[in-house]
Amino acid sequence: MPPSPPWSVARPRPTSQHPSDASDSVSRIWSLPPAWNIWPVLHAGRAALTREGVSVTPRVWLVRAGRHGERAGWALDNQVAGGGFREVDDLTQATTRNAVASRVRAGFPEAKPNLVANYTGQLWALRERIAVGDIVVMPMKTSGQIALGKVVDGYRHLTDPDPERRHVRPVHWLRTDVPRTAIKQDLLYTLGAFLTICEVSRNDGAWRMTQVLKSGHDPGARPAVGASAAAASDVPQAGDVEADASPAVDVERYARDRITSTVIEHYAGHKLEHLVAAVLRAEGFSCTVTKASGDGGVDVFAGRGPFGLDSPRLVVQVKSDATPVGVDVVQKLQGALSSHGADQALLVAWGGINGHARALLINQHFRIRVWDADDLIDAVCRNYLRLPDELRAELPLKQVWVLVEEETP
């Protein structure tokens, strides 16, 4: 667990969002055809608990780390969430929504009223609506994983030289390696909203994310809650438009998540090894898939040449679990790399690898490569037209063109 953050805990503030604009550019994608102890909070459901006057009934907020996830490492290292909106001045003295709107208009003098309202809603959420004790969800585009943490103090305007790193909330990051594959499709759709800051509530999203924070897995919506939560989220409250109902969704990410879900449904367990072998064959390797048991840490042997004996010769380990794999798997693969006389190794870890495993691989860049679910899906799409007809029939994909939505700062 990360160390306690160096922030003092303040009293909570009352705790929005709007759709984003779209650009004229287009993108081609693959798609399927048509110092606190947080665990008492997780066990308490929506019951109101307080500690030193601070509400610990958590709402859940999506707070992005930049259009390309460029602020994620900085946010984790500095125990904060937020940033962006570089054109907007310090909001410390902006104690009303109108005051925030005035600063947004000053920062974006040419912006249309809808865009001003959009940015105002998001910054008002960061400034005021997000409460101490609420949960923050931060997707990390660079790793394909999701970080979750607890808000521990009120709004801060930092004096960082980078204007993209000033509007923040102090956060104690509790999980930083939750794979997207651990989240069910309907909740991933909510996390695909283009808004930088928005509340997660549709389909029992708040409760489910607290369960992810606790166990690393999304249990799905509770039967008695999911429908009512979805209906409630369709009715915006005064002055706010809930992000869950926003039409501005990252279509490319949504399509990829659907493909990812379909792949693991069809190719779970030993079948995923055959998919990996098919992809490697499409890339010019000759492959042999080992038996399901007694493989000695190797699921696929791959090599160049007519018999697969030419370099580069690969040993491949495939793990279809949704949770990140650890050091033991990496060490076993390192041993197989040496004992089989291979040149390189490929670890296909559907749920990614944890921090300890990543640290072990720092000096193995030219010997061991890791593919997570996103990397494997990239390889499938890259080689799709060269895959066997039978596999393409099981995984029917087509290319489409869509407008690229403009994300907020």
What does this structure look like?
One of its GO terms (biological process) is DNA restriction-modification system. Residues 1-26 are annotated as: Disordered. This protein has 409 residues and is of the alpha+beta class. The protein folds into two domains: 22-249, no CATH class; 267-371, 3-Layer(aba) Sandwich (Trna Endonuclease, Chain: A, domain 1). It has helices at residues 39-43, 72-78, 97-107, 113-129, 185-191, 205-215, 223-233, 251-266, 271-282, 327-339, 355-360, 373-382, 389-394; strands spanning 22-31, 50-51, 54-55, 60-63, 80-82, 135-140, 145-151, 156-157, 167-179, 197-199, 286-289, 300-304, 310-319, 344-349, 368-371, 398-405. The strands form four sheets. Strands 4, 5, 6, 7, 8, 9 and 10 form a seven-stranded mixed sheet that branches. A five-stranded mixed sheet has the order 11-12-13-14-15, sandwiched between helices. A two-stranded antiparallel ribbon has the order 1-16. The longest helix has 17 residues, at 113-129. Mean pLDDT is 82; it is low at 2-25, 35-56, 230-239 and 241-247.
Task: Detail the topology: elements first, then pairings.
Layout (H helix, E strand, L loop, with lengths): L21 E10 L7 H5 L6 E2 L2 E2 L4 E4 L8 H7 L1 E3 L14 H11 L5 H17 L5 E6 L4 E7 L4 E2 L9 E13 L5 H7 L5 E3 L5 H11 L7 H11 L17 H16 L4 H12 L3 E4 L10 E5 L5 E10 L7 H13 L4 E6 L5 H6 L7 E4 L1 H10 L6 H6 L3 E8 L4
Parallel strand pairs: 4-6, 13-14, 14-15
Antiparallel strand pairs: 1-16, 2-3, 4-10, 5-9, 6-7, 7-9, 8-9, 11-12, 12-13
Helix pairs in contact: 3-4
